[in-house]
Write a structure and sequence with these properties.
single chain, alpha+beta, 3 strands
C-alpha cells in the first residue's frame, strides 16, 4: 500500500534547503580538513610571557616548517573558503583535536 504525502511549496523549499545544507556542510568539512592535513601539522609553541614560559597550540606549515598561529591560519582560510568564521574555527578545533568523524563536526555550526 503506497501513501502520498502532500506538502506545501514553502515546506518543500525548507526541506530541500535543510538537505542541501547538511550535504554542503559535510563537503566543506572534508575539503577544509583535507587541505589542513595536506599542508599543516599540529604543533605546540613555547613562548616567553614576562618571566614565564608558556605553551600554545599552533599549526606548522609542512613546506617551510614555520609555525603559524591559529588566528593567522583562520584569516588565510577565510580568504580561501566562502564559509562562516565560526564554522572555520570549529573545523580547525576539531581537526587539531582529531574529532572529525564521517566529515562531521563535534558541534553543529552553520556553514554560512
Amino acid at each position: 500500500m503506497k501513501r502520498k504525502l502532500i506538502i506545501s511549496e514553502t515546506q518543500y523549499k525548507k526541506l530541500t534547503q535543510l538537505l542541501t545544507e547538511t550535504e554542503y556542510s559535510e563537503v566543506m568539512v572534508k575539503e577544509i580538513a583535507d587541505d589542513l592535513t595536506a599542508n599543516y601539522d599540529r604543533a605546540m609553541e613555547t613562548y616567553e610571557d614576562g618571566n614565564d614560559f608558556r605553551k600554545r597550540k599552533v599549526f606548522q606549515n609542512k613546506i617551510n616548517e614555520e609555525p603559524i598561529t591559529p588566528h593567522n591560519l583562520l584569516e588565510y582560510l577565510k580568504g580561501k573558503y566562502d564559509v562562516n568564521e565560526e564554522f572555520l574555527k570549529q573545523v580547525m578545533n576539531d581537526w587539531s583535536a582529531g574529532k572529525i568523524k564521517d566529515n562531521r563536526l563535534s558541534k553543529n555550526v552553520a556553514v554560512r
